[in-house]
Write a structure and sequence with these properties.
Elements (H helix, E strand, L loop, with lengths): L27 H18 L11 H22 L5 H30 L2 H15 L3 H8 L17 H19 L5 H22 L4 H6 L5 H15 L10 H21 L12 H13 L3 H6 L2 H8 L1 H18 L6 H27 L5 H24 L8 H8 L2 H5 L3 E2 L20 E6 L1 H5 L1 H10 L3 E7 L8 E4 L3 H20 L3 E7 L4 H4 L6 E4 L9 H21 L3 E6 L8 H9 L1 H10 L10 E2 L5 H15 L5 E4 L5 E2 L2 E3 L1 E2 L2 E2 L9 H7 L15
Parallel strand pairs: 1-3, 2-3, 2-5, 5-7, 7-9
Antiparallel strand pairs: 4-6, 8-11, 10-11, 12-13
Helix pairs in contact: 1-2, 1-13, 1-14, 2-6, 2-9, 2-11, 3-4, 3-14, 3-15, 3-16, 4-5, 4-16, 5-6, 7-9, 9-11, 10-11, 14-15, 20-27, 23-26, 24-25
């Protein structure tokens, strides 16, 4: 994370009683605070225990950035020495060299290790990084910072740079607008904007968590907290020395406790930022304000200061290295391996600081020529990403992998699969096949969407129109939904289920309804806050038995409702799933440099050369299958299709045939896998045939 750097000297003079023209004194304790921030982030990303809230290190960085930038801009504007060009010169020197170095490293790694589709996604994120909009990109594409598979995005760490860089654009302009106002007016104006931002952050965590996490308007208050402290101190040159020593000790200790509590006590299930972000933000403000507190003295110790000095480079380097390694491994990295990569990235950060950051920062090139050079550097860094994106990942690098991914395009581009927070199903073409003939409807979650291409072919070949209504993470039941980390997910699932069941119930042409989903998903992901809940409720049932009863009741009510409206119901027992990612396994098998990396970081990769592996037939999977089977037995007209029967034998379950993958990830079938799984599905033949 970039922060402003300060001269290491200061001095007072009788001709400058306000202190506005004095250089800002170097604060070694602030560099020590950076060390805490970056170490917590790296430890969290490496999966170390007892740091589940280590992501709050970014919030500490935000406060530091606000404080240092606020100090510089406020003093220079009040001293009539502020220059937009000089400001962006400092920012360019601080941010661009190391960032461009990491991006170019990532280009080389991506060319060697990533498949075409992975390269395409990476290239788009790299372009967003160079244009300071990566936070917007990841908000729109990842499903949330804590969503599954986000660790496979090598540029994900740059979301926070996007927030800061957008702040760097707006804050100087705001201060220029307020430059003629009194100090009190300036302070209250920023305080008011910070209060609005904090309120938006709190509100957003109750229903718009992704937007709230990634975007500047709901993060601005964290940067503003540092700005407010800087302006408060800068108004009076004596303020910083007026604090009693005992008070300073108390504030610094309280700040450290707050940050430590956040790092050790928060986790992915806590709505964030919102109120929870007050812990690291207030903690950072207290430590910076304390100045002479004993925690500040501890943070001024040279090892802490050194880590703080290289913190920006370490923040940049650690994540791509971890992400590329995770892309190469078909399972998550072990903590020791991830920690070793974190340590290796520290070495890269030291070299980056010495040979990239420092030389560029000490450049004496005049402002305008320097800005033009940095503009050219940014353009040169942008160009490869543009090429990679325009060519859809340079598929000619590995035709076999390209064919593998083309075979699974439907899984990643189904227009009828509602995203996690989508409220309303798409009930128009192509999700509802045109015509007035008899129809088959496929409903369920993303596991249903994964078999929809094969299911459409089966329905059309039997003479039926085809209707698909699926939603990610939302099994379809009547009166029961899935509660996720946020109430919004539960509300969206409730609304989506109600609308798709109402549509099917009202349409007499829909004669067959096929329900396919991961029935056990809320139990598999209980650690992420998932659970079955009654519609309109957000409280998780207090016992496991009550949760299973909700599945039983919701399924029974749905079948009763569909049968009462004249539908024939097919219930699909879910396909097998795996404890590794079969698609990543296949990519690694086919990309030679990727195999080399996999051999270093994951002893388990490529251990199933036959394409057959044990599936994760968990107790919750078995319990869910029993409930579905029991409910089918209670409704004699219901048909049950077991999607495991043609994929599994006594030796395990098949995830690939030769170089052809049957799965797109741990549990979602590709079209070929769906065809095999649906071998036992036979629909009554109609006379009229509908073209495919």
């Amino acid at each position: 994370m970039p922060q402003a750097t300060q001269p290491k000297q200061s001095g007072a003079s009788a001709s400058d009683p306000t202190g506005l023209h004095r250089p800002i004194k170097y604060r070694p304790d602030v560099d020590g605070l950076r060390a805490i921030a970056v170490t917590s982030v790296v430890a969290y990303h490496c999966g170390l225990p007892h740091v589940q809230g280590g992501f709050v290190g970014v919030d500490v960085f935000f406060v530091i950035s606000g404080y240092l930038i606020g100090s510089l801009v406020f003093k220079e504007i009040r001293g009539h020495s502020f220059s937009i060009a000089k400001f962006y010169e400092r920012r360019a020197k601080r941010i661009l060299p190391a960032l461009c170095g990491v991006v170019f490293f990532s280009y080389v790694a991506a060319l060697l290790l990533l498949s075409p589709s992975e390269m395409y996604s990476f290239a788009n994120s790299a372009m967003a990084t160079i244009t300071s909009s990566s936070n917007i990109y990841f908000w729109r594409t990842t499903g949330g910072y804590f969503a599954p598979r986000t660790d496979l995005h090598p540029m994900l760490m740059t979301w926070s740079l996007g927030v800061e860089e957008q702040f760097y654009i707006l804050f100087p302009l705001l201060m220029l607008l307020l430059r003629k106002a009194k100090w009190r007016t300036q302070y209250l104006s920023i305080l008011g904007l910070a209060a609005v931002s904090l309120a938006a952050s709190v509100w957003g965590t109750k229903g718009h968590t992704d937007l709230t996490f990634y975007m500047l308007p709901t993060r601005a208050w964290e940067l503003a907290a540092g700005v407010l402290l800087a302006i408060y101190e800068a108004r009076d040159p004596h303020t910083r020395t007026s604090m009693p020593r005992l008070t300073a000790h108390g504030l610094s200790l309280a700040g450290l406790v707050l940050i430590g509590t956040a790092i050790a006590g928060l986790n992915q299930q806590v709505p964030f930022p919102g109120y929870a972000a007050l812990l690291p933000v207030v903690g950072a403000v207290l430590i910076i304000a304390a100045r002479q507190g004993f925690v500040n003295r501890l943070l001024s110790w040279r090892p802490f200061v050194f880590v703080g000095l290289i913190s920006y480079s370490w923040y940049l380097w650690h994540w791509p290295m971890l992400s590329f390694a995770r892309n190469c491994s078909d399972t998550d990295l072990s903590v020791p391996v991830a920690t070793a990569i974190g340590i290796l990235s520290f070495g890269c950060a030291v070299l980056s600081y010495k040979f990239i950051e420092q030389p560029f920062r000490k450049s004496t090139t005049p402002t305008m020529p320097l800005l033009r050079r940095y503009g050219a550097l940014a353009a040169a860094t942008f160009a490869p990403a543009l090429i990679f994106s325009a060519t859809h990942g340079l598929p000619q690098r590995n035709p076999a992998v390209n064919q593998l991914e083309l075979a699974g395009q439907h899984l990643y581009g189904d227009p009828c699969l509602g995203i996690v927070l989508q409220y309303h199903p798409r009930l128009t073409p192509p999700c509802v096949q045109p015509g007035d003939g008899t129809a088959v409807a496929l409903i369920g979650d993303s596991h249903a969407a994964a078999i929809s291409e094969a299911m459409r072919a089966i329905a059309n070949n039997a003479g039926y129109r085809f209707v698909e209504s699926t939603k990610s993470g939302c099994p379809v039941l009547d009166g029961v939904s899935v509660r996720g980390i946020t109430p919004e997910r539960g509300r969206s699932c409730t609304t989506f289920n109600r609308e798709r069941l109402d549509f099917i119930e009202r349409d007499p042409s829909i004669q067959i309804v096929i329900v396919a989903q991961c029935w056990s998903l809320p139990f598999r992901q209980a650690d992420l806050g998932d659970s079955y809940v009654a519609d309109g409720q957000n409280e998780v049932p207090s016992t496991e038995e009550a949760k299973w009863d909700l599945l039983r009741v919701g399924l029974s009510r749905m079948v009763d409702r569909l049968e009462a409206s004249g539908k024939t119901v097919y219930l699909m027992l879910d396909n097998p799933s795996f404890g590794f990612d079969p698609m990543r396994h296949m990519r690694t098998r086919l990309i030679v440099p990727r195999r080399w990396v996999a051999a270093l970081v994951s002893s388990s990769s490529l251990r199933y050369a036959s394409g057959i592996a044990p599936d994760t037939y968990l107790p919750e999977d078995r319990a869910a299958r029993e409930i579905v089977t029991e409910e089918a037995a209670a409704h004699p007209e219901v048909h049950v299709v077991d999607m495991r029967s043609h994929l599994c034998t006594a030796d395990g379950c098949r995830f690939a045939i030769g170089d052809q993958a049957l799965y797109g990830d741990w549990g979602h079938l590709f079209a070929r896998g769906a065809q095999i799984a649906l071998t036992d599905l036979h629909l009554p033949q109609l006379h009229a045939q509908i073209p495919k």
